[in-house]
Amino acid sequence: MSLFIHRLFKTATIVLCLMIASCGWHLRGQGNVPTVDNVAINGSGAIYQETLRLLQEKNALASSSPRATLVLGQEQWDRRTVSVAGNALAAEYQLTLSLPYSIRDSADNTISQDKLVLVRSYRYDQNDVAGKDREERLLKEEVYREAARQLMRVLAYTING
Questions:
Q1: Using CA atoms, how far apart are residues 92 and 89, in angstroms rounded to an integer?
Q2: pLDDT tens string 99-138
Q3: Which residues of 84-93 are buried (b: 16+ CB within 10 A; e: fewer)?
C-alpha cells in the first residue's frame, strides 16, 4: 500500500509540474527581457535607474550616436481607497503609477509616445501600520521593476519591429 501511495504522489507531482510548465506560468519578475542594442535613455527617478540597470545588463547602452533614445517623463503616483472597513477606515488601497514616455530616433524625431500605467492593490491594517507601510514600499519597488521591463519590451518592439 505504501508503495502505491508513493508512486501516486510521484506521478501527481510530475503531472502538476508539466501542467504548470505547459501553461506558461513563471515566477513574478522572471520573464524574459527582450534584447535591444545601441540605445540611450533620458530621465530621472527610480524607473530611470531600473531601466538603466537593465540596459547595462544587456550591454545595450550606446557609447555614441544611439539608434534610439528612450525619454522618460515625470512619474506620478496615485493612492486611493478601494474599500472601507466597518469602522469607516480604509481597508484596501490601490496604487497607480503613471509614466509618460517617448522613443526618439537618431534624428531626434518622436517615433513612439505613450503613457505607462501600472496598478496594484493591497490590504491595509490599522493595527499594523509599520508593516503595511513597508508592504507599500516593497510594492512600489516591484512596480518600478515591472515598469522597467515593460519599457524594455516597448523599446525592443519599436526599434526592432
A1: 9
A2: 999 999 988 899 999 999 999 887 766 666 566 678 788 8
A3: eeeeeeebeb
Spatial CB neighbours of 59, under 8 Å, sequence gap ≥ 6: 37
35-56 confidence digits (pLDDT tens): 778 899 999 999 999 999 999 9
C-alpha cell belonging to residue 130: 509599520
| Long-range contacts of residues 104-111, Cβ cutoff 8 Å, at least 24 apart | 104/68, 104/69, 104/71, 105/67, 105/68, 106/65, 106/66, 106/67, 106/68, 108/69, 111/68, 111/158
Angle between helices 46-57 and 129-160 (to 10 degrees): 50
pTM: 0.73
